[in-house]
Amino acid sequence: MPKPPRPTDIPSFAAGQLALLDAELQAELSETNALLSSHTPTALSRAGLAILNLNITSIRTGLGGKTVAELALDPAVVSKGDKADIPEHGIRTGDIVAIQDQPAGSAKKTEKRELAKKGVEGVVLRVRRENIEIVLDREDADVPSGGKLWMMNQTMTRLQKFQDQEYTPFIRVLFGQASPTPLPSDLNDPSNPLHKLEWIDPSLNDSQKEAIRFALASREIALIHGPPGTGKTHTLIELILQMLKQKLRILVCGPSNISVDNIVERLASHKVPMIRLGHPARLLPSAQNHSLDVLTRTSDAAALVEDVRKEMDDKQNSIRKTRNAKERRQIYGELKELRKEFRERERGCVENLVKDSKVVLATLHGAGGFHLKGQDFDVVIVDEASQALEAQCWVPLLWVKAGKLVLAGDHLQLPPTIKSLNSKEAKAAKKDGKKNNKVKAGADNVKADVETEVKPVAKTTLETTLFDRLLALHGPSIKRMLTTQYRMHERIMQFPSTELYESKLIAAEFVKDRLLKDLPYAVKDTEDTREPLVFWDTQGGDFPEKAEDDEIGNKGSKGMSLGDSKSNEAEAALVKLHVGNLIDAGVKAEDIAVVTPYNAQLAILSQMLKGAFPGIELGSVDGFQGREKEAVIVCLVRSNPDHEVGFLGEKRRLNVAMTRPRRHVCIIGDSETVGRGSKFLKRWMEFLEEHADLRYPNLADVYVDERNGR
Ligand SMILES: Nc1ncnc2c1ncn2[C@@H]1O[C@H](COP(=O)(O)OP(=O)(O)OP(=O)(O)O)[C@@H](O)[C@H]1O
Fold first, then answer.
1. Model's pTM, two decimal places?
2. Where are the transmembrane segments (predicted)?
């Protein structure tokens, strides 16, 4: 018997998430205010959960005497020449939102709290590209009048306000108040019908097939765990095709437009009829033909709408030809009627297109659009689920009626970027969560037997994704892992596989011994190009790191992007030496990437390498997630007498760094500092010492290249 899950109290969970989202927003606000001129894309607006820097442009009285406020982007934040379109967001008609004064970055904490309290709640009436209308909840609502305002989606508030009877069995499973329905006992039996599936892609490997059978057999939730390069999206495509064969209706979401379009492109090659929701301008050109906007003009049903449009055009022309005022008036009257009909037919056409579509695709926040409200789907599939905030995942889950959820992701790579992780606000929110939870568990929940087991909300942070939480709640039986990877040389794969993936990864035959010297263009056989794993150990103190805040802070820009960053010039020079050797051997610059966890180091690398090696790619580890290159150089930077490793200690970040390369990885780092950071880092250093081509650089040699003026 599997252990019964420890149920989560839903209102407390939602309250905890709200407190955390608010903390995230506060962190965003401080940053947006500090960096107003640079318009840094913020995590929350990326998540589509909030819009910053708004102004009220008009207030009017709407239906039933309710106050309707119109909000648009503050002209002060719109760059000259740019359109004042509100950045992409997930706030949709019908959403409950809060509008609040946006405190200045310089405002004191207490002032910020006060301002935040003054906000009003309302329901979104209309969303346009350049403005949004909100019907305020209370007629006497005190509309914030301050300079800038912000608005936040209240998905979690809706969840918090759910009544007990509104929890579907599916939602109960998501909170551990019920266990997932057990799988058929004969699932692994060859006689089970799922073993007789006709695969559309015959090249699927066994772990991919098993994951698909599992996702088809699961009743409420299925997690597909795809370590780097294991064909997670590839598997989802087959799953979608199999579900379509079973006549299921599917909503496919991802946290970003690119994650969704990636699936649209691959489904398109199978000629699957589908609808991609979202503004066509934001879609990949290859996905645009499937967008609702384009289909509304080109589908069969659109012909009816086009007929009316044509009639309207004819009428317009006849107005121009008529001088007689009476006739003109009559034509105007007819035009008005036609317009009404046009709008109705268009709405009908759009509704039918969406309703009749067996596969609908949208970003997580895009799925909250009015087109999908209340629609029935058999399955919601979320790709890159470990890159999405849980609150984002709830947008489709609360908006459509769904009976099953399939999440695909890898919780052992980096979660979505959270700014408030260590901020005071986040700590306060955690504390609030704890308090909140105690109150709930003690007072409201009469079902005493459940109460004692309520999972503490305090353990959930914004960084805890739905994928993580479900795994913790129900255990590994709700997931299947893909185990054949199609990216890395066997030796590159070995350490992450042993440490993080229970030694289960297998390198596909055609990648397992691929080297740079075997690239399909002329590459010399050198000590670098015949070696998949190189470790330049910079131990000994000759390659010391530098803390950027020493300098930048003094110039009065403390707290800016490089504030806590670290750099290491000597290691950067070593990177240059290694890249130079690869290029000299014939490896193309486009096939080489350098990644480092520190922005300050990225800046130095950029200065040193961009001019010398055009075409080479430089990136932060976090920014390189999801990417791959033939050769990757990882520059670890940290080298100090105190053996401090900072956020290098995060396993998931290192995992991303070490799993980007296909044929060659070169690690540059100080084993003395790094090896003392954690047990994991110690084992990594030991592994490299034993299995990598180990090299000790000589500082003078490293700078020879520099002197030669490369
Ligand atoms: N069964 C298979 N046989 C051969 N190649 C495969 C198979 N499955 C996946 N691949 C290849 O592996 C690569 C990675 O696949 P895909 O893009 O689906 O992976 P992913 O897991 O979504 O990516 P990431 O690891 O970046 O998250 C692709 O080039 C794909 O063609």
1. 0.78
2. none
